Structures are given as structure tokens and as C-alpha cells.
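Hi Y.,

Following your request, here is the sequence exactly as I used it, all 192 residues.
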Amino acid sequence: VQTSQEAQLRERIEDRKRIEALTTELTALRERLGAKEELDAEQSRGTAKGRDFEDRVHGLLDEVAMARGDVAHHVGDQAGETRGKKGDTVIELGAAGGPCLAKIAFDPKDSQLTRPKAWEVLNGSLDDRGADYAVLVVATDENVPARTQSLVEYEGNKLIVAVDREDPERNLIEAAYGIARARALAARQDEL
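Below is the corresponding structure, written out as C-alpha cells. Let me know if you'd prefer a different format.
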């Protein structure tokens, strides 16, 4: 009788050890799954945040372009002339009523860029989209690159404008658009 009781006791002890090991393994799996879900959600939020800002800016640019007889194209996911993707919105001036007279590339950024990186984006927008003028639209004044200012023209074909991240101010977008449009058309006329 005692050997059978001892055997049962040993089996219970072994069962408890197996249950404890399985519980530990299950807890570790839950933690890894939770961490992966958090990482996926964070990456999704980061991408969506930048894309939401880009979409808001494009929506305003589309309205402003339409009012002036221009056409706005959201091309951020498409490779441009040099196979790059800089310049998320391309404005074709005069294209609503005839041939395109000039192009402006707008590139919204929801993060701060260094001045060299900003110039890389602006020059890339000019090259990738075959644009005559490039505008970098940054979310908030804090994201204006060092040693630059909002609504100040650079090199005759570049402009940086800072707008509110959640509700980009239409008047600031229109001001940047107006400067870029006038300069792009003037540059084309000079070429002719």
C-alpha cells in the first residue's frame, strides 16, 4: 500500500513540475506576443501619423490648386523621373485648362530634418518630380531645420513652411503655394 501511495505522490510531484514548466512557458509566450503586438501597433501609429499629416496637406493643396486652375497629384508612393520618391504632391500649373506650364513639388514631413537632410529632400523633389520649384512642409515651427526660416525662399527654387500638425493652416499653405507658383511660372517664362 505504501509503495502505491509513494508512487502516486511522485506522480503528483512530477505533474506539478510539468504544470509549472508549462505555465512558465505560456507566460513567456504571452509576454513575447504582447511585446510584438505593442511593437506592431507603435510602428503602425508612427507610419499613420506621418501619412495622416501628408494626407491633410495634400487635401489642402488639392483645394488650392483647383481654385487656380492647377492640378494636384498625390504621388508619394510612386517613383519619379530619377526613380526616387521625394515630392509627395506634384502640382501641374495650368493643367486643369490646358498644357502644364510648370511643376511644383511639395513634400510634407512630420518630423524634424537637419538642414542637409532638408536640402536633400528639396533637391530630390526637384529631380524626382521634374519640378521647377520645391516646398518642404513641416509639422510645427519646432521642425523647421536649423538656420532656416518658415516662408523664406532659398536658392530661388526652394521654400520651407511650418504648419500645425493636426490642422494645417490654409493661409500658410496658400502663401507658400502662391510664392512657389509665381516663381515657377517666372522661371519658365525666363526659359522661353
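The longest strand covers residues 102-109.

Thanks again,
Q.
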